[in-house]
């Protein structure tokens, strides 16, 4: 009796993820650390100086975390109500934050009580930032005002009331100490110069603006609102360069990496998208558990911190590269030892002893070997196999059809099993690699269970889904055939024109040769 040959599972090419240098780089972050805050995290800001601590604004507190600490090393809690937008100064010594009561508070990192309080807004202040001269603060609030403050005297320098809705984001220029930008829910982004009494530029974003970001050079501005991330050329009067629509819900936050070559955007769709600032294409993305409100990247790109609506702080650190190199060096001798002697060719006088290889059969192969067709089909209809390796399920169906036992294996099933079969067939029949086998399976299922149609609402629903899937696929095939016909016509027209041009050139060449001969 011949030995049993296991079922051959056809290896079909799959469209996998393209592995690029960006993919490898952004995958180099460790498993995230989860920290629970008291409320939704509305702002994360890294200190610009070592050791690069970061301030987290949530509920009525501001927590300062060390890069690798899971507990706050300092807390500012002198707020009556919610705190907003805690931002570091460029030297990392001062921290400014807005609040629900409209008061802006300035803190010294080494102290606890506020150094200064700036009162002038009549509604909550959601935007606070330092100008690059370090002695002035700009702010924006729900009273539609954008104000400029003097730190030493704690007085208001100027107030702009040009927005017609809540001011919810802003940033300052690092090139010019008098320029700052605010974004509002009135769909506009305004650029202010402290030396003038009104805005010097207005940009229409088209959606409520949630975040704005200015490149370090000061020439490019990024605005986020709705599902759009837009890049503007400030030096050309606010000309739109790129409009990106890669998120499915509102984009809430933006940040740049240390080199300015990668732009990160976070959204309520739970994704962080990473763009190249040269091509503005998505080079990588991160998926999170809930909607994202805030995002920050450390100055050395070693840490990514994401704040979410459920109050969870997600912290990822880069894996150190030196340890990877050492581990590779340790593995090399073991690998050389493992492959040693594999290329040895036996000599003529050597006596070779072959070691019998024990073949381990899978569950469905054992059942097929004992001719239990129905149980073999049940073994490959288990959810893990159907979902992750559908090619195994189809290979067993193909083997049963070759043996002529597929019909008997499909027959005699209850409502739950028929529902499982139809679900698999309806989902996979449109895949070209499975279509030839599953069309035959669908025909057999229809023939066997046609008499019981109408007795089970679940089975009837699956039959309708199968019919809809096949109908859509037929429509797609018809459309593709129409497109192919149009393309064939175009290619035929191009070929005729090319042949005509060649004939004309040939005839002209012959005429020139004849005229030349006559002259001689």
Automatic annotation (TrEMBL):
- Pfam families, A to Z: UTP15_C, WD40
Print the keywords alphabetically.
Nucleus, Repeat, rRNA processing, WD repeat
Q: Spell out the residue ranges that the record assigns to WD repeats.
A: 118-159, 244-285
Q: Give residue ranges for domain U3 small nucleolar RNA-associated protein 15 C-terminal.
A: 344-490
UniProt xrefs under PROSITE patterns? WD_REPEATS_1, WD_REPEATS_2, WD_REPEATS_REGION
Question: Which InterPro entries does the record match to this protein?
Answer: U3_snoRNA-assocProt_15_C, WD40/YVTN_repeat-like_dom_sf, WD40_repeat_CS, WD40_repeat_dom_sf, WD40_rpt
Q: Which Gene3D superfamilies match?
A: YVTN repeat-like/Quinoprotein amine dehydrogenase
Gene Ontology terms, cellular component aspect? Answer: nucleolus
Recorded hits in SUPFAM superfamilies, A to Z, give:
WD40 repeat-like
Q: Which SMART domains match?
A: WD40
Q: Does the keyword Membrane apply?
A: no
Tell me if Repeat is a UniProt keyword of this record. yes
* Primary residence: nucleus
Q: Where in the cell is it found?
A: Nucleus, Nucleolus
* GO terms of biological process kind: positive regulation of transcription by RNA polymerase I; rRNA processing
- Domain of life where this protein originates: Eukaryota
Briefly state the protein's biological role.
Ribosome biogenesis factor. Involved in nucleolar processing of pre-18S ribosomal RNA. Required for optimal pre-ribosomal RNA transcription by RNA polymerase I. Part of the small subunit (SSU) processome, first precursor of the small eukaryotic ribosomal subunit. During the assembly of the SSU processome in the nucleolus, many ribosome biogenesis factors, an RNA chaperone and ribosomal proteins associate with the nascent pre-rRNA and work in concert to generate RNA folding, modifications, rearrangements and cleavage as well as targeted degradation of pre-ribosomal RNA by the RNA exosome.
List, alphabetically, the PANTHER family matched: U3 SMALL NUCLEOLAR RNA-ASSOCIATED PROTEIN 15 HOMOLOG, UTP15 U3 SMALL NUCLEOLAR RNA-ASSOCIATED PROTEIN 15 FAMILY MEMBER
- This chain's protein is named U3 small nucleolar RNA-associated protein 15 homolog
